[in-house]
Each structure stands twice: as C-alpha cells, then as structure tokens.
Design brief:
single chain, alpha+beta, 4 domains, five-stranded antiparallel sheet, Rossmann fold, D-amino Acid Aminotransferase, Chain A, domain 1, five-stranded parallel sheet
Length: 418
C-alpha cells in the first residue's frame, strides 16, 4: 500500500520511522517532511496546510492511507475534503478538530457532558476579561481560544500579569485571530500527564500514558514551548486513574461526539491535571502529541499501519497492540533562543550519514542536509529517544545520546524524566 504522512516535525519522523517498518507499506511519502524523514520516506514539496494540493497528490498517486500529523490542516478541514472524495484519512473533520482549534468549544462541550475540567469563563471583550481576572479569582490560566502552536497560555498570579496577558492576546494580536477570544480558567494544582487514545467513533483504544515538559528551562522555568521532552509511561496515571479517565472523560466525549453527529476517526490527546479531587482535563488535542509520540512509538512492537487502518475502517475493536515492557524517554535538542528568535544553518556534529547515533533513536524536527552536512533549520532541532527496563535506564541512554551531538547555541533541558 501507499501511505502519505502530512507534516515535517519530530512527531512525523517518529510516525514515518514506524510506518516504514510495516511490511504492508510499499511506498511512503511525507509532505513536506524534513531531512531526517527523507532517510525513510520520499519527501514531497507540498506545504502541510495546502489541503487541496495534498488531496490532488493523494489522488494522482493512489494513496491508500493519509496520516495527518499537525493540527492546522485538520482544523482547515482536510479530513472532510478527503472523505468527500472517498480517500482514507486518519484524522477528524473540521467539526471534530474544534476540540483543539477552539478551547471555548471544548470547554462548553465538557460542561454540557459533565467531563471534569477547571471552572472557566469565555470573553471576546477585553475590558470584560480584565474586570473578571481580579482577586479573589486569581491565580488563573488565560488561554487563547484558537491554535497557538502550544504557546497560547499565560499563568497569571496577579492582576497586573493577567492584564498584560490579555493585552498581548486580545489587543496586540500576539497570536493573531487565535487570541481575539480568550478562556480564563481556574488554575488547577497537581501533576500533569497525557493520555492518547485512538477512536473509530465506536471503540476507544488507549495508548501508554506519557508526560511532557513544556517549559524551556530546567525546573519548569522560562516560557512555554512546543515541548522540551517527554517520557512514557506517566507515573501519575496509575491503573486506577487511567480507568477513571476512560470512564469519566473518553467515554462521555465519544458519547458527546455521537450526539453532535460529529464523525471522528483518529487520535484524541487528553491533557490532564491529576488533582487531589481526581483527574481533570486541561485540553484536548486532535492529533498525536509532539514530543509524546516519540517515546510512545518507541515502545510499540505491533504494526502501526495495521492499527491506523483499523481506526480509519471502523474496526478498531479487532486490534490488540503489543508494547515493550519498561519505559522510554525523549529529550528535545533546541536552537539557542527558542521559543523566541533563533538562528538557523548551524552545522550539527555527531550524527552519522543517516542522521542517527548509536544506542538511541534520533528523530529530526528542524534539520536540513546540505553539501554532506547536517544543519539546523528550526527551533526544535532533534529529539533523542531511548528505551530501558525502567525510566532511569531510558533516561541515562537518552542523555548519553544527547551528549554525542553538538552545534552552536544548542540547548536542552537536563532534567527530563527526573
């Protein structure tokens, strides 16, 4: 079969690595891909948000399965476009994608279906929001309603911090249209964790839990990023908590989608805060997480393509994936200055001809190949992923791999999975 992956980051490299290993796949494409992905797939010069172009390519090449990595094309309706032409695609349509593309939509759905989440208010007027974000409601999490690449959240402990966050989002347009509407919600206390589940609209299949590190600096300091590392499984999601999330979050969510007549065949990422009162939903994403996908797929022993096909074809209940015992850890290596401004084109030393290293798996996020050299081409450049009998062994192996790599301005957190 022929498979097309949409996207070009570390998540897509992990998907390409696992999909390329399937005996079912005769040809693998990735649009637009990156230099690391080019080692296992044919990269196609089509932007990940060029939905009409991606559909045309799929029809011309006879693609049997399209797997969408990032959220933007899903929010734009690539799932609906493919469905209208009878092209198999892993990912929801635009209405289902609103679980991620509109926090206000997701929060309202959770309120209506008694899915545990933080108390909240939605505002489209700056002055109303400022008047709400005052003591005694503080501290609050102020979130841009729309897509903001994982960076549209401000944790505010004072009225001054809240007002500044609201100015940047609603008046100055830091996140464009995504921040014109905001959600102000109770700041939950506890331990964060992520649970990804596949669904074909009838069945829910949970993947191993994971925990990511959003802040750019050690000890969870500095600004939020797209993710500086992750490990699997997440200790906060005990079997008891895991079962509670299935019962109180995933099953009601599936019920809500059915009631709303929203078809959904893809992955649901549940960002959770495990509080003293139990697990509560921080956010939904409608695609594989990045970098959580890297450590999760590193533990998958079964054929990923078989699982994805079963999801798209409505027979997810037939599959029973097998997973490696133990743990896995992914450490992201970023350009100096990320998530702010950074320079590109720095030569990466330590990678072999295929862009890897011995003893760990290297997934490329922002690299290019030029004149026989590996160069940086993004904020998050690489993620080094390793498995082990326990989290300490996986962590040690991942950091041994990281220390083999170097480039000017290279930055990574030293405390992933500690």
């Amino acid at each position: 079969m022929k498979v097309l992956i949409v996207g070009g980051g570390g998540r897509e490299h992990a998907l390409a690595w696992k999909i390329a290993a399937s005996p079912r796949v005769e040809k693998l494409y990735c649009a637009p891909g990156n230099a690391g992905i080019a080692q296992v797939a044919e990269c196609v010069d089509i932007g990940q948000e060029d939905c009409p172009g991606l559909l045309r390519f799929s029809m011309e090449k006879g693609i049997d399965l399209c797997v969408v990595g990032p959220e933007a094309p899903l929010a734009q309706g690539i799932g609906d476009m493919f469905a209208r032409e009878g092209r198999p695609i892993f990912g929801p349509g635009a209405e289902g994608a609103k679980l991620e593309s509109s926090k206000a939509f997701a929060k309202d759905l959770m309120r209506r279906h008694d899915i545990p989440t933080a108390s909240f208010r939605v505002f489209d007027r700056y002055q109303d929001a400022v008047e709400y974000c005052l003591p005694p409601r503080l501290p609050l999490a102020i979130k841009a309603d729309g897509l903001a690449a994982g960076k549209g959240v401000a944790i505010c402990h004072t009225a001054e911090e809240a007002e500044r966050a609201l100015q940047m989002m609603m008046l100055e347009g830091k996140f464009g249209e995504a921040g014109r509407v905001i959600v102000a919600e109770e700041l939950l206390q506890g331990t964060e964790a992520s649970l990804l589940a596949l669904t074909d609209g009838e069945t829910v299949l949970c993947l191993p839990s994971a925990q990511d590190h959003k802040r750019v600096l050690d000890a969870d300091e500095g600004p939020n990023t797209g993710g500086m590392g992750a490990f699997c499984p997440a200790p906060a999601l005990t079997p008891e908590i895991h079962g509670q999330v299935e019962r109180e979050v995933l099953i009601p969510l599936l019920h809500a989608l059915r009631i709303g007549e929203i078809p959904y065949r893809g992955v649901i990422y549940v960002g959770l805060m495990v509080t003293q009162a139990g697990p509560k939903v921080l956010e939904f994403n409608v695609r594989f997480g990045d970098p959580e996908t890297q450590p999760i797929l590193a533990r998958l022993e079964s054929d990923l393509v078989e699982i994805l096909q079963a999801t798209v074809e409505g027979r997810l209940g037939e599959v029973d994936p097998k997973w490696k015992d133990g743990s896995s850890v992914a450490v992201v290596i970023a350009s100096g200055g990320y998530p702010g401004s950074y320079e590109k084109g720095k030569e990466i030393l330590g990678l072999d001809e295929d862009g890897g290293i011995e003893g760990a798996i290297v997934f490329h996020a922002g690299t290019k190949r030029q004149d026989g050299k590996w160069l940086t081409a993004g904020g998050r450049v690489l993620s080094v992923t390793a498995t082990g009998a326990d989290v300490e062994e996986a962590r040690r192996k991942a950091y041994e791999g990281v220390r083999k790599i170097s480039f000017a301005g290279m930055h990574y957190r030293k405390d992933i999975a500690r």
